[in-house]
Design goal:
Helix 2 crosses helix 3. A hairpin with a 5-residue loop joins strand 5 and strand 6. The chain contains 10 helices and 8 strands. The chain is of the alpha/beta class. The two termini are about 15 Å apart. The strands form 2 sheets. A 5-stranded parallel sheet has the order 2-3-1-4-8, sandwiched between helices. Strands 6-5-7 form a 3-stranded antiparallel sheet. The protein has 2 domains: about 160 residues, 3-Layer(aba) Sandwich (Rossmann fold), CATH 3.40.50.300; about 35 residues, no CATH class. Bound molecules: adenosine monophosphate. The site of adenosine monophosphate (AMP) has 17 residues, from helix 2 and helix 3.
């Protein structure tokens, strides 16, 4: 199965991609994660991407296409994948089409995880990572016991550098202006599926599985 997950920042694409990876062995290819890793490793790409990402803007199409090309080339991607956060504009979608056609791996579905605006802002501004476990928590939505568990074991709640309110507002604007036109693009070629992304993670996951015919 070859899927792209579309949705605004905070819609839960990454969470759903991880579940698909755990259950079906489909590698999650997240350009955001690859770029964050490049920043952590202080590579040339990381240096170029750092400021742009912190401000919530898109890094260049060339850089992300290179990352995607390398990921799709990997043996683990040969029997399917979930793209999370790519493509993010029409030029990227067109490059992806060319690339997938050249390797004879056409997309099966483009799944929009559709979440209302108020929820998006809360999910992003409340998002924290436990420094000990790497677990993603939310100060508005997680059980207090989960937050206490991290803190009482000596962990800290770390906020992503682009989860501040200025960057969040910009990322949502960038999404509306540059990424949303992809919905029409994938609809016109019959690949678009819309999953309600509000509610609990497992509820959303069930909707995704059902709509993509991956449910037993
Ligand atoms: P994400 O983790 O998907 O929310 O991505 C975090 C940030 O990484 C975005 O706000 C962009 O700055 C950058 N980024 C991720 N994917 C792309 C992409 N496909 N094109 C350009 N920039 C991207």
């Amino acid at each position: 199965m070859r899927i792209i997950l579309l949705g605004a920042p905070g819609s839960g694409k990454g969470t759903q991609a991880e579940k698909l990876m755990d259950d079906f062995g489909l590698p999650q290819i997240s350009t955001g994660n690859l770029l964050r890793q490049a920043i952590a490793d202080d590579t040339e790409i990381g240096k170029q991407a750092k400021e742009i990402m912190a401000a919530g803007n898109l890094v260049s199409d060339e850089i992300v296409l290179d990352l995607i090309r390398i990921s799709l080339d990997s043996p683990s991607s040969q029997s399917g994948f979930v793209l999370d956060g790519y493509p993010r504009n029409i030029a990227q979608a067109e490059s992806l089409d060319v690339l997938l056609t050249s390797i004879n791996q056409p997309l099966d579905h483009a799944v929009l995880i559709d979440v209302d605006s108020d929820t998006l802002t809360k999910r992003l501004s409340g998002r924290r990572m436990c420094s000990l476990t790497g677990k993603i928590l939310n100060i508005y939505f997680s059980d207090q016991s989960e937050i206490d568990e991290c803190l009482s074991s000596g962990g800290e709640l770390i906020q992503r550098s682009d989860d501040n309110i200025e960057s969040i507002t910009n990322r949502i604007n960038v999404y509306r202006e540059q990424t949303e036109p992809l919905l029409e693009y994938y609809k016109s070629i019959g690949l678009l599926i819309i999953a309600d992304g509000n509610g609990e993670i497992d509820e959303v996951y069930k909707r995704v599985l059902k709509l993509t015919n991956m449910m037993d």
